Amino acid sequence: WFGHVEPAAKDPILGVTEAFLADPSPDKVNVGVGAYRDDNGKPVVLECVREAERRIAGNLNMEYLPMGGSIKMIEESLKLAYGEDSELIKEKRIAAVQALSGTGACRLFADFQKRFLPDTQIYIPIPTWANHHNIWRDACVPQRTFRYYHPETRGLDFASMMDDIKNAPNGSFFLLHACAHNPTGVDPSEEQWREISYQFKVKNHFPFFDMAYQGFASGDPNRDAKAIRIFLEDGHLIGCAQSYAKNMGLYGQRVGCLSILCDDELQAVAVKSQLQQLARPMYSNPPVHGALVVSIILGDPELKSLWLKEVKGMADRIIGMRKALRENLEKLGSPLSWEHITNQIGMFCYSGMTPEQVDRLTDEFHIYMTRNGRISMAGVTTGNAGYLANAIHEVTKS
Ligand code: LMR
Protein backbone atom coordinates (compact mmCIF):
# COMPACT_ATOMS: atom_id res chain seq x y z
CA TRP A 1 0.00 0.00 0.00
CA PHE A 2 2.60 2.52 0.96
CA GLY A 3 5.62 1.64 -1.15
CA HIS A 4 5.16 4.71 -3.33
CA VAL A 5 5.27 7.14 -0.39
CA GLU A 6 8.45 9.18 -0.47
CA PRO A 7 9.68 10.89 2.72
CA ALA A 8 8.39 14.47 2.96
CA ALA A 9 10.82 17.36 2.69
CA LYS A 10 11.92 18.70 6.06
CA ASP A 11 9.88 21.67 7.28
CA PRO A 12 12.02 24.78 6.72
CA ILE A 13 11.33 26.04 10.27
CA LEU A 14 10.49 23.08 12.51
CA GLY A 15 13.12 20.98 10.71
CA VAL A 16 15.72 23.41 12.06
CA THR A 17 14.67 22.59 15.63
CA GLU A 18 15.04 18.86 14.87
CA ALA A 19 18.57 19.41 13.58
CA PHE A 20 19.42 21.59 16.59
CA LEU A 21 18.21 18.95 19.05
CA ALA A 22 20.30 16.28 17.30
CA ASP A 23 23.55 18.33 17.61
CA PRO A 24 25.59 17.32 20.70
CA SER A 25 27.80 20.46 20.61
CA PRO A 26 27.77 22.51 23.85
CA ASP A 27 28.15 25.69 21.77
CA LYS A 28 24.97 25.21 19.78
CA VAL A 29 22.53 28.10 19.40
CA ASN A 30 18.96 27.89 18.10
CA VAL A 31 17.75 31.07 16.44
CA GLY A 32 15.46 29.14 14.12
CA VAL A 33 11.94 28.76 15.41
CA GLY A 34 10.08 31.86 16.62
CA ALA A 35 9.71 30.83 20.23
CA TYR A 36 10.60 33.16 23.09
CA ARG A 37 13.46 32.31 25.42
CA ASP A 38 14.67 34.09 28.55
CA ASP A 39 18.15 35.51 28.82
CA ASN A 40 19.44 32.08 29.77
CA GLY A 41 17.99 30.59 26.59
CA LYS A 42 15.25 28.78 28.52
CA PRO A 43 11.55 28.51 27.51
CA VAL A 44 9.32 30.81 29.57
CA VAL A 45 5.97 30.20 31.22
CA LEU A 46 4.47 33.60 32.02
CA GLU A 47 3.53 34.36 35.62
CA CYS A 48 -0.03 35.22 34.54
CA VAL A 49 -0.29 31.77 32.96
CA ARG A 50 1.01 30.09 36.11
CA GLU A 51 -1.59 31.97 38.16
CA ALA A 52 -4.40 31.08 35.73
CA GLU A 53 -3.35 27.44 35.98
CA ARG A 54 -3.41 27.61 39.78
CA ARG A 55 -6.98 28.85 39.54
CA ILE A 56 -7.92 26.09 37.13
CA ALA A 57 -6.31 23.28 39.15
CA GLY A 58 -8.94 20.98 40.54
CA ASN A 59 -11.80 22.99 39.03
CA LEU A 60 -11.55 21.88 35.44
CA ASN A 61 -13.83 19.21 34.14
CA MET A 62 -12.88 17.51 30.90
CA GLU A 63 -16.11 18.09 29.00
CA TYR A 64 -16.15 19.00 25.32
CA LEU A 65 -16.17 22.65 24.40
CA PRO A 66 -18.86 23.64 21.88
CA MET A 67 -17.84 23.12 18.23
CA GLY A 68 -16.98 26.81 18.00
CA GLY A 69 -14.87 26.69 21.18
CA SER A 70 -14.92 28.73 24.36
CA ILE A 71 -17.41 31.61 24.19
CA LYS A 72 -15.50 33.55 26.87
CA MET A 73 -12.15 33.13 25.09
CA ILE A 74 -13.70 34.31 21.83
CA GLU A 75 -15.29 37.35 23.51
CA GLU A 76 -11.97 38.38 25.03
CA SER A 77 -10.10 37.76 21.78
CA LEU A 78 -12.45 39.98 19.84
CA LYS A 79 -11.96 42.82 22.32
CA LEU A 80 -8.22 42.45 21.91
CA ALA A 81 -8.32 42.56 18.12
CA TYR A 82 -11.24 44.89 17.39
CA GLY A 83 -10.97 47.15 20.46
CA GLU A 84 -12.40 46.99 23.97
CA ASP A 85 -15.44 49.13 23.10
CA SER A 86 -15.91 48.06 19.51
CA GLU A 87 -19.39 48.78 18.14
CA LEU A 88 -18.93 45.84 15.79
CA ILE A 89 -18.82 43.49 18.77
CA LYS A 90 -21.95 45.08 20.26
CA GLU A 91 -23.72 44.76 16.91
CA LYS A 92 -22.74 41.04 16.86
CA ARG A 93 -21.39 41.41 13.35
CA ILE A 94 -18.32 39.25 13.93
CA ALA A 95 -18.43 35.52 13.30
CA ALA A 96 -15.74 33.96 15.46
CA VAL A 97 -14.58 30.54 16.53
CA GLN A 98 -11.75 29.23 18.67
CA ALA A 99 -9.00 27.88 16.44
CA LEU A 100 -5.93 25.68 16.78
CA SER A 101 -3.71 28.71 17.19
CA GLY A 102 -2.80 30.95 14.23
CA THR A 103 -2.16 28.09 11.82
CA GLY A 104 -5.54 26.55 12.56
CA ALA A 105 -7.26 29.91 12.17
CA CYS A 106 -5.62 30.52 8.79
CA ARG A 107 -6.46 27.01 7.63
CA LEU A 108 -10.08 27.26 8.71
CA PHE A 109 -10.37 30.54 6.85
CA ALA A 110 -8.72 29.07 3.75
CA ASP A 111 -11.14 26.12 3.82
CA PHE A 112 -14.05 28.54 4.26
CA GLN A 113 -12.78 30.58 1.34
CA LYS A 114 -12.57 27.50 -0.84
CA ARG A 115 -16.04 26.30 0.08
CA PHE A 116 -17.94 29.57 -0.14
CA LEU A 117 -15.86 31.72 -2.48
CA PRO A 118 -14.48 29.05 -4.79
CA ASP A 119 -13.56 31.48 -7.54
CA THR A 120 -11.28 33.61 -5.38
CA GLN A 121 -7.52 33.44 -5.01
CA ILE A 122 -5.25 34.55 -2.20
CA TYR A 123 -2.52 37.15 -2.64
CA ILE A 124 0.40 36.34 -0.36
CA PRO A 125 3.33 38.68 0.39
CA ILE A 126 6.82 37.73 -0.74
CA PRO A 127 8.38 36.71 1.50
CA THR A 128 6.01 35.34 4.09
CA TRP A 129 5.94 32.66 6.78
CA ALA A 130 6.62 29.46 4.83
CA ASN A 131 3.56 27.70 6.22
CA HIS A 132 1.18 30.26 4.68
CA HIS A 133 1.89 28.73 1.28
CA ASN A 134 1.20 25.22 2.60
CA ILE A 135 -2.03 26.29 4.25
CA TRP A 136 -3.67 27.80 1.18
CA ARG A 137 -2.18 25.07 -1.05
CA ASP A 138 -3.74 22.30 1.03
CA ALA A 139 -7.04 24.18 1.07
CA CYS A 140 -6.80 24.20 -2.76
CA VAL A 141 -7.07 28.00 -2.99
CA PRO A 142 -4.99 29.33 -5.90
CA GLN A 143 -2.16 31.59 -4.78
CA ARG A 144 -0.84 34.80 -6.23
CA THR A 145 1.92 36.87 -4.71
CA PHE A 146 2.52 40.54 -4.07
CA ARG A 147 5.79 42.32 -3.55
CA TYR A 148 6.57 43.44 -0.01
CA TYR A 149 10.25 43.52 0.85
CA HIS A 150 13.13 45.41 -0.68
CA PRO A 151 16.38 43.39 -0.34
CA GLU A 152 18.67 46.40 -0.87
CA THR A 153 17.11 48.65 1.76
CA ARG A 154 16.12 45.65 3.91
CA GLY A 155 12.85 47.53 4.34
CA LEU A 156 9.39 47.74 2.84
CA ASP A 157 9.00 47.92 -0.93
CA PHE A 158 5.95 50.10 -0.53
CA ALA A 159 5.75 51.34 -4.12
CA SER A 160 5.79 47.81 -5.58
CA MET A 161 3.36 46.58 -2.94
CA MET A 162 0.92 49.35 -3.87
CA ASP A 163 1.36 48.60 -7.58
CA ASP A 164 0.53 44.94 -7.00
CA ILE A 165 -2.52 45.87 -4.93
CA LYS A 166 -3.69 48.20 -7.71
CA ASN A 167 -3.03 45.64 -10.45
CA ALA A 168 -4.81 42.73 -8.74
CA PRO A 169 -8.32 42.10 -10.09
CA ASN A 170 -11.04 43.94 -8.13
CA GLY A 171 -12.31 41.96 -5.16
CA SER A 172 -9.11 39.98 -4.56
CA PHE A 173 -8.28 38.36 -1.23
CA PHE A 174 -5.03 39.47 0.41
CA LEU A 175 -3.14 37.94 3.29
CA LEU A 176 -1.65 40.72 5.44
CA HIS A 177 0.52 40.39 8.54
CA ALA A 178 -1.15 42.64 11.11
CA CYS A 179 2.16 43.44 12.83
CA ALA A 180 5.71 42.15 13.23
CA HIS A 181 5.85 40.68 9.73
CA ASN A 182 7.33 37.17 9.68
CA PRO A 183 10.08 36.68 8.46
CA THR A 184 11.19 40.25 7.68
CA GLY A 185 10.37 42.25 10.82
CA VAL A 186 9.32 45.03 8.44
CA ASP A 187 5.87 46.62 8.84
CA PRO A 188 4.20 49.47 6.95
CA SER A 189 4.00 52.72 8.92
CA GLU A 190 0.62 53.97 10.13
CA GLU A 191 0.48 56.37 7.20
CA GLN A 192 1.27 53.57 4.76
CA TRP A 193 -1.43 51.35 6.29
CA ARG A 194 -3.90 54.18 5.68
CA GLU A 195 -2.89 54.30 2.04
CA ILE A 196 -3.14 50.51 1.75
CA SER A 197 -6.59 50.56 3.33
CA TYR A 198 -7.69 53.35 0.97
CA GLN A 199 -6.51 51.35 -2.04
CA PHE A 200 -8.26 48.23 -0.76
CA LYS A 201 -11.47 50.29 -0.67
CA VAL A 202 -10.97 51.50 -4.20
CA LYS A 203 -10.35 47.95 -5.41
CA ASN A 204 -12.90 46.27 -3.13
CA HIS A 205 -10.21 43.81 -1.95
CA PHE A 206 -10.73 41.64 1.11
CA PRO A 207 -8.01 41.81 3.79
CA PHE A 208 -7.27 38.74 5.85
CA PHE A 209 -5.00 39.61 8.77
CA ASP A 210 -2.73 37.07 10.35
CA MET A 211 -2.03 38.54 13.79
CA ALA A 212 0.39 36.05 15.31
CA TYR A 213 2.49 38.62 17.18
CA GLN A 214 0.08 41.07 18.80
CA GLY A 215 2.12 42.71 21.56
CA PHE A 216 5.47 41.61 20.22
CA ALA A 217 6.01 44.53 17.86
CA SER A 218 5.63 47.44 20.27
CA GLY A 219 5.03 45.72 23.60
CA ASP A 220 1.46 47.08 23.51
CA PRO A 221 -1.27 44.84 22.02
CA ASN A 222 -3.51 47.82 21.29
CA ARG A 223 -0.85 49.58 19.32
CA ASP A 224 -0.04 46.39 17.44
CA ALA A 225 -3.68 46.15 16.33
CA LYS A 226 -3.41 49.55 14.65
CA ALA A 227 -3.47 48.21 11.09
CA ILE A 228 -6.68 46.31 11.78
CA ARG A 229 -8.25 49.32 13.48
CA ILE A 230 -7.44 51.50 10.47
CA PHE A 231 -9.19 49.05 8.15
CA LEU A 232 -12.16 48.93 10.51
CA GLU A 233 -12.40 52.73 10.63
CA ASP A 234 -12.49 52.69 6.86
CA GLY A 235 -15.46 50.34 6.90
CA HIS A 236 -13.86 47.19 5.49
CA LEU A 237 -15.09 43.71 6.17
CA ILE A 238 -12.06 41.78 7.37
CA GLY A 239 -10.89 38.36 8.48
CA CYS A 240 -8.46 37.87 11.35
CA ALA A 241 -6.38 35.00 12.70
CA GLN A 242 -5.23 35.44 16.31
CA SER A 243 -2.74 33.31 18.16
CA TYR A 244 -1.74 33.13 21.82
CA ALA A 245 1.37 31.09 21.05
CA LYS A 246 3.80 34.00 21.19
CA ASN A 247 2.15 36.72 23.26
CA MET A 248 1.10 34.37 26.09
CA GLY A 249 3.78 31.78 25.46
CA LEU A 250 1.08 29.14 24.95
CA TYR A 251 2.84 27.57 21.95
CA GLY A 252 1.94 23.93 22.54
CA GLN A 253 -1.57 24.67 23.79
CA ARG A 254 -2.67 25.59 20.27
CA VAL A 255 -5.07 28.33 21.22
CA GLY A 256 -6.24 31.07 18.89
CA CYS A 257 -9.27 32.63 17.29
CA LEU A 258 -10.58 33.07 13.77
CA SER A 259 -12.95 35.96 13.20
CA ILE A 260 -14.75 37.22 10.12
CA LEU A 261 -16.48 40.60 10.18
CA CYS A 262 -19.81 40.39 8.34
CA ASP A 263 -22.40 42.90 7.13
CA ASP A 264 -24.84 42.16 9.94
CA GLU A 265 -25.69 39.77 12.75
CA LEU A 266 -27.71 37.42 10.54
CA GLN A 267 -24.75 36.93 8.23
CA ALA A 268 -22.41 36.47 11.18
CA VAL A 269 -24.60 33.71 12.62
CA ALA A 270 -24.60 31.90 9.28
CA VAL A 271 -20.84 32.27 8.79
CA LYS A 272 -20.09 31.06 12.31
CA SER A 273 -22.30 28.01 11.82
CA GLN A 274 -20.41 27.16 8.64
CA LEU A 275 -17.02 27.58 10.33
CA GLN A 276 -18.20 25.12 12.96
CA GLN A 277 -19.28 22.73 10.22
CA LEU A 278 -15.78 22.90 8.79
CA ALA A 279 -14.25 22.16 12.19
CA ARG A 280 -16.52 19.25 13.09
CA PRO A 281 -15.19 16.62 10.65
CA MET A 282 -11.60 17.81 11.12
CA TYR A 283 -11.14 17.94 14.90
CA SER A 284 -14.70 18.11 16.19
CA ASN A 285 -14.09 20.79 18.77
CA PRO A 286 -11.00 22.57 20.04
CA PRO A 287 -9.02 21.78 23.22
CA VAL A 288 -10.15 23.27 26.49
CA HIS A 289 -7.11 23.97 28.66
CA GLY A 290 -5.38 26.78 26.79
CA ALA A 291 -8.70 28.48 26.08
CA LEU A 292 -9.45 28.53 29.79
CA VAL A 293 -6.03 30.01 30.57
CA VAL A 294 -6.62 32.80 28.05
CA SER A 295 -10.15 33.49 29.32
CA ILE A 296 -9.00 33.72 32.91
CA ILE A 297 -6.12 36.05 32.11
CA LEU A 298 -8.00 38.40 29.81
CA GLY A 299 -11.14 38.32 31.95
CA ASP A 300 -9.42 39.40 35.17
CA PRO A 301 -8.19 43.02 35.22
CA GLU A 302 -5.31 42.20 37.57
CA LEU A 303 -4.08 39.22 35.57
CA LYS A 304 -4.54 41.14 32.35
CA SER A 305 -2.30 43.94 33.54
CA LEU A 306 0.29 41.40 34.70
CA TRP A 307 0.11 39.88 31.19
CA LEU A 308 0.57 43.29 29.56
CA LYS A 309 3.64 43.85 31.73
CA GLU A 310 5.05 40.47 30.80
CA VAL A 311 4.47 40.92 27.05
CA LYS A 312 6.23 44.26 27.27
CA GLY A 313 9.07 42.57 29.14
CA MET A 314 9.50 40.00 26.34
CA ALA A 315 9.34 42.67 23.62
CA ASP A 316 11.88 44.82 25.49
CA ARG A 317 14.32 41.96 25.96
CA ILE A 318 14.24 41.33 22.23
CA ILE A 319 14.85 45.02 21.50
CA GLY A 320 17.84 44.85 23.85
CA MET A 321 19.20 41.83 22.00
CA ARG A 322 18.85 43.63 18.66
CA LYS A 323 21.10 46.36 20.03
CA ALA A 324 23.56 43.86 21.45
CA LEU A 325 23.87 41.88 18.22
CA ARG A 326 24.31 45.00 16.11
CA GLU A 327 26.86 46.53 18.49
CA ASN A 328 28.86 43.32 18.58
CA LEU A 329 28.99 43.16 14.78
CA GLU A 330 30.06 46.79 14.55
CA LYS A 331 32.73 46.28 17.22
CA LEU A 332 34.17 43.44 15.17
CA GLY A 333 34.64 45.93 12.34
CA SER A 334 32.13 44.35 9.98
CA PRO A 335 32.23 46.32 6.74
CA LEU A 336 28.51 45.70 6.21
CA SER A 337 25.64 47.77 7.52
CA TRP A 338 23.71 46.06 10.32
CA GLU A 339 21.33 48.94 10.93
CA HIS A 340 18.40 46.78 9.87
CA ILE A 341 18.85 44.58 12.96
CA THR A 342 17.60 47.44 15.10
CA ASN A 343 15.22 48.92 12.50
CA GLN A 344 13.24 45.72 12.07
CA ILE A 345 10.70 44.83 14.72
CA GLY A 346 9.01 41.86 16.36
CA MET A 347 10.59 38.48 16.87
CA PHE A 348 12.70 38.27 13.74
CA CYS A 349 15.62 39.88 12.00
CA TYR A 350 15.81 39.26 8.28
CA SER A 351 19.56 39.40 8.15
CA GLY A 352 20.20 39.34 4.41
CA MET A 353 22.52 36.33 4.79
CA THR A 354 22.44 33.86 1.90
CA PRO A 355 21.50 30.17 2.29
CA GLU A 356 25.20 29.28 1.83
CA GLN A 357 26.23 31.65 4.61
CA VAL A 358 23.56 30.14 6.86
CA ASP A 359 24.86 26.66 6.04
CA ARG A 360 28.33 27.76 7.14
CA LEU A 361 26.93 29.12 10.41
CA THR A 362 25.38 25.73 11.07
CA ASP A 363 28.27 23.56 9.89
CA GLU A 364 31.12 25.56 11.41
CA PHE A 365 29.51 27.26 14.42
CA HIS A 366 26.50 25.06 15.37
CA ILE A 367 24.16 28.01 14.86
CA TYR A 368 20.74 26.90 13.68
CA MET A 369 18.43 29.19 11.71
CA THR A 370 16.24 29.08 8.62
CA ARG A 371 18.05 29.19 5.29
CA ASN A 372 16.29 32.41 4.26
CA GLY A 373 18.59 34.25 6.67
CA ARG A 374 15.96 34.85 9.32
CA ILE A 375 17.28 35.13 12.87
CA SER A 376 14.81 34.54 15.67
CA MET A 377 15.87 37.35 18.00
CA ALA A 378 14.02 35.55 20.80
CA GLY A 379 16.83 32.99 20.85
CA VAL A 380 19.56 35.64 21.28
CA THR A 381 20.83 36.12 24.83
CA THR A 382 23.41 38.23 26.63
CA GLY A 383 25.48 35.05 26.75
CA ASN A 384 25.40 34.18 23.05
CA ALA A 385 25.14 37.59 21.29
CA GLY A 386 28.95 37.86 21.05
CA TYR A 387 29.39 34.30 19.77
CA LEU A 388 26.62 34.84 17.23
CA ALA A 389 28.03 38.17 16.05
CA ASN A 390 31.48 36.68 15.65
CA ALA A 391 30.17 33.78 13.58
CA ILE A 392 28.02 36.08 11.41
CA HIS A 393 31.04 38.30 10.86
CA GLU A 394 33.18 35.31 9.85
CA VAL A 395 30.70 34.10 7.20
CA THR A 396 29.81 37.54 5.80
CA LYS A 397 33.15 39.35 5.76
CA SER A 398 34.48 38.15 2.42
C1 LMR B 1 8.00 30.58 13.23
O1 LMR B 1 7.79 31.25 12.22
O2 LMR B 1 9.12 30.22 13.59
C2 LMR B 1 6.84 30.21 14.13
O3 LMR B 1 5.66 30.78 13.67
C3 LMR B 1 6.74 28.77 14.40
C4 LMR B 1 6.18 27.97 13.27
O4 LMR B 1 5.19 27.26 13.51
O5 LMR B 1 6.71 28.03 12.17
UniProtKB/TrEMBL annotation:
Any GO BP: amino acid metabolic process
UniProt family annotation: Belongs to the class-I pyridoxal-phosphate-dependent aminotransferase family.
Domain annotation Aminotransferase class I/classII large: ranges: 27-392
GO molecular function annotations of the record: L-aspartate:2-oxoglutarate aminotransferase activity; pyridoxal phosphate binding
Gene3D superfamilies noted in UniProt: Aspartate Aminotransferase, domain 1 (3.90.1150.10), Type I PLP-dependent aspartate aminotransferase-like (Major domain) (3.40.640.10)
EC number of this enzyme: 2.6.1.1
Keywords, alphabetical: Aminotransferase, Pyridoxal phosphate, Transferase
Catalytic reaction(s) noted: L-aspartate + 2-oxoglutarate = oxaloacetate + L-glutamate
Lineage top rank: taxon: Eukaryota
Organism field: Musa troglodytarum
GO CC, any one term: mitochondrion
Protein name as it appears in the record: Aspartate aminotransferase
Primary enzyme class: transferase
Binding partners and assembly: Homodimer.
Listed CDD domains: AAT_like
Cofactor annotation: pyridoxal 5'-phosphate
